[in-house]
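Take a minute with the sequence and C-alpha cells given here and flag any C-alpha cell that looks odd. Thanks in advance.
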Amino acid sequence: MNTIYNHEDEFLGIIPSSIGQLKKLTWLNLAACSFSGRIPSSIANLTQLTKLELSYNMGFSGEIPSSIFSLPALRELNLSWNYLSGPIRNFDKASSSQLESVDLSNNEFSGHIPKAFFQLKSLKHLDVSSNNFVGLVDLTLFWRLSKLTSLHLSNNNLSVVDGEGHSPLPTDSYGPNELGLASCNITQFPRILRRINYMSHLDLSHNNISGDVPNWVWETWSSSLSYLDLSHNMLTGLQLTSNVLPFTTTLQTIDLSFNRFWGQIPVPNSSAQVLDYSNNNFSSVFPNFTLYLSYTSYLSMSKNFISGHIPISICNSMLSVLDLSHNYFRGPIPSCLIESTRLLVLNLRNNHFEGTFPCNITTGCALQTIDLHGNKIEGQLPRGLSNCSDLEVLNFGGNQINDTFPSWLRGLPHLSVMVLRSNQFYGSICDMVWYNKYDQCFSSLQIIDLASNNFSGNLTSQWFENLELMMTESRSTLQITSAESVKFPGYQDTVDIIYKGSEVSFERILTTLTAIDFSNNRLEGDIPKSIGRLVSLRMLNMSHNAFTGKIPAQLGGMTDLESLDLSCNQISGEIPQELTDLTFLDVLNLSNNHLVGKIPQSHQFSTFGSSSFGGNAGLCGPPLSKLPCGYSPYIPGAAAQVIKSSHHVDVVLFLFAGLGFGVGFAAAIVVKWGRISRWFTATVRASQT
C-alpha cells in the first residue's frame, strides 16, 4: 500500500499504532476526519512517507512525536486545526531533512520555536500561527533559509525583532514573499523587509508600529503586492507623493483600519477587491475617487471625519458592501445604490443624510443589510422593500420617518432585525389585514425595536404567535446574520438597543440575542399571554405605555429572559410567583404601576432592590420594607381607639373641674402627662356600662 487517502470521511476513534507497520506507505491523508487522541509515535517507522496530513480533525491532542520531523523522505507535514499542545522538541538530522512545508497552525503548542527549524534547508513554507509559542524571534534566522517563500508567525506570544544590523546576511538571501507577522509585538517596520524585491502578502496587523509607512513599500512592491494588512497599529502617515497608491496590478486587500491616518484617503491606482480605511482620522476623499473602485467589492470608510456628498459615480462600481457609517456625509442617498442588483450591504448609519429613501426597488434587490440609523430620513418606508427577499437587517432608527407599522414586510423569510425606534410611526402594531394562517409572518425576527414612537392600540396574541425563531429553545446557536452571508469576515452588522437599562451596541448579531422593545409608545390593554411562548427571548421592554390588567403568569416560562421592564404602566394585581422561575433574570423593573400584595422572594427576586418595585402603593415586603406584609406595631383600630380615649378623658376633666378648681387642675396636669390616662379611660368605660 502506497497511499491512504480518506479526506472528509467520518471516521471515529484513534489511529492504531499498527499503522507503523505499513513500511511502504508514501502518502497518509486523514484530513477532516473524526480521529481523536494522540498521534502514535509508530508513524516514525514510515520511512518512505513523503506527505502526512492530519489537519482539520479537531480531535488530536497532546504532544507530537518529535521523531516525525526526522522522517527521511517527508516533504509535507500538515497538522493544522487540532488540539495539539505542549512544546515541540528539538529533533535530529534537521540539516538533512527533506521537509519543504510545515503547517502547525491553529493548535495549542507552547514553548519556543525549536532551533532545528532554522536548519531545514529545504523549507519553503512554515506556518506556526495561532498557537501559544513564546520567546524572542530574530527574523534574520529565517532569512538564512534560502528557499523559504512563505512564513507565518502571527497570533502567538512571540516578540519578533529585526536583527539585520547585528548579524550580516548572505548576499543571496532575499527572504519570503509571503509574510504573516500579526500580533508579534513589533514596534517599527522591519528594515530587513527592504531586502525583499517581490512581496505578495504582508500582514503586520495588531502590532505597535507608529510613524509613517515607508515609501519603499509602495515603490518596491508596486507590481507584486496583492495583500497588505497594516490594521490595528499607531501609524499616522503614508509617505506618498499623491493620494493614489502606485500599484500596477489589481490587489486583493488593503487594510489600513484602526490607525491614526489623517488627511485625504488614498486609493490604489489599479483598484482592490477589499478596501478598509475604517477607524482613522481621515477627513476627505478626492472627488473622482470612485474611478478607482472598478473591481472593489468591499469598501469601508467607517468611523472617520469625512464630509460631503456621495457621488453618483459610485453606482458604476462593483460594490457588494458599502460602509460609510459614523462620518459627516450629507445630502440625499443616491437612488442607484438602492436600485443596484449587486449591493448586499448598505451601511450609512450616523451621518447627516436627508430627504426620502429611494423608492424604486425592483424584484432584483439583493440587499441583506440596510442600516440608516441616526440620519434625517423622512417620509415613508418604500413598499418596494418587500422585494428584497434576502433582507436580514433593517435599521431606520433615529430618523424622521412618518408612517404606519410595516406589516407588509411580514413575508420576508430572512428578516431577523427590525429597528424603527425614535421616529414618528403611528397607529396599531397589529392593525393589518389578516392573511392565511399558513403564511409566514416575521418568522425569523430575533430583534424588534419600536421604542419611542406613537404606536397605539392593543397588542393581539396572534401577532406574537408567529415569531417562530423566538419560540426556539437554543441558547447555543451561533448563526451570524449577514456578516457570514456576505463572505466578508471584516464586516459586522451593528445594532444599538437598550439592554439591561443601558444603551448597548452589539457588533455581532447572533440568534442567541433576541429582544423586543415596545417602550415609550401609547400601547394599551392587556399584555398578551402568548408572549410567554417566546422562550428564547433575552430582553423584553414594554415600559412607559398604558398597559392595564395583570402581569401574565406565562412570562415565567421565558427561562432565557435576562431583562424585563414593565415599568410606568397601569398594570394591577399581584406579581406572579411564576416570575421567580426566571433564573437568568439580571434586570427587573416593575415600578410605577398599580401592583399589590407581597413581593416574591425566591431565586433571583431576592437580589433586586427597591427601585425594581417602587411606585406601587399596594406592594409590601422586602425590599420595600424590612417588615413582613400585614405586620403593624399598633393594634388594629388603635388610631380610632386613641381618638375615643381622648374624648373620654376630656369628659372626665370637665367633671373634675366641676368639683373644684384645685383638684381638677391637679388631675388635668397628671392626665396631660399621660400617667393615668388609661385609668381614666377605663373608669369612663365602666360608667358607661
